[in-house]
Amino acid sequence: MEMEDSALLYEAAARGCMTTLNTLIQKDKLILHRVSLTSFTETPLHVSALLGHLCFTITILELNPGLASELDFRQRSPLHLASAEGHTEIVKALLRVRDGACLARDQDGRIPLHLAAMRGRIQVIQELVTACPASVSELLDGDTVLHLCVKYNHLGALKLLVLIMEEEDEIVKENQEGNTILHLSVRLKQSKTIRYLLSLPGIKSRANALNGMGLTALDVLQLGSRDYRTLEIQNLLIEAGARRSKELTSSNFTLMPNSGAKSASSSAAIFPSKSSRKSKSWFSKCMRLLEYDREETRGALMIVATVIATITFQAALNPPGGVWQQNYTNNLGGPACSDTNVCEAGTSVLAYANPEAHITFLTYNSVAFVASLSVIALIVGGFPLRNKFCVWLLAQAIFVTVTFLAFGYLVAIVTVTPSSLRNRLRNLYFKLYWIWIGVLLLASLIEAIRFIAWTVKKLRRCWRKILKAYTRTKGLCLLQRE
User: How confident is the model at residue 130 (pLDDT cuts 50, 70, 90)?
Assistant: First the structure.
């Protein structure tokens, strides 16, 4: 009988039927207190709060306020459900009974404010923050509530929270990846959100802030695909004074001279000429073409090394000609097998038929395998790809790996080709050999140019520092004379 009444209570909660609720309460005044004894995973208050039955919810709260603190099987309170669905009046009723539920977290670590921000429930956000201002500082996996508004593209909720927050540090706070809400909105290409954020003085003044990867918002934009929206966002950022991280590192020393003839003449020594600026611009463009993208380089090297390691490992287990399937002796496995030289099962056929070719193939294959594993180990171990010299070393290791892989391929092809056809394929092998040498030399030349350009850049930077120090000293002397 009690189970039937409990089932009727949950059906009434789902329909918001006050008549059934009053009838059940008259029949059993303690029915709402026996909810915890049932096998249901949530209370009737969870159901009515989720579905937005206001009168039903208020009646339950009056008869048993303790249900506002009960959690369902996902550790969610009724306030979690009402906040996610945007039932503002029910949220108010729940907060009047127990405002401490504002900071309760479900099994995914979300408080009611997080759910409201993820769904863009503006009025609910207003009520939750009013009842518990500290909730705006609660993080979800390192993200602030502002990050959640941007991530789920709710500009109205973002504007409300920015108006509510008094501390500017909360607005420009970074998540666990070091991204501000500007970084995140740029990555998601939300042009309206970006336009609003750049209208905020606190965000605009930090438009060149670096995230955890050392990238500005403009850098993050360049990582994505290029389309019309990308150009629109790029113009917004540039108009707000946003720059690339590489541009921030190159700052020029300028000294404002006093008026007068001497100061005019001294300015020529202090400020660079147009021709030098043009040459510097030309050099910068050339350097930009030769620069590495750290993350792309790391990923490309890892993929190439992993593929080569897989190929060479498979080739070692299944060499040209295959392996003996069982032990063979004379006249069974071929002329290479005898009673004294048993061809053992699982060993290479080529090792008995042509030992020199087998050793040559294994040598090339092993060098390629070990070199590829070395590249993988260095990348996984955090080899500094910021340094151009380190990247150059990794590139040389890849060249060695690919070269020996190619040599192993040629040995394998020659081995599996019948001797009667080898002369016919000799010209093809010869052409392929020289084509590969040419490609290898071209790739080596490009890497050498990169390395030389990097060295020249370092030398120019050192020379620029020396020149700045000299120019600063000379400028100060001229000003003191005046």
Answer: very high
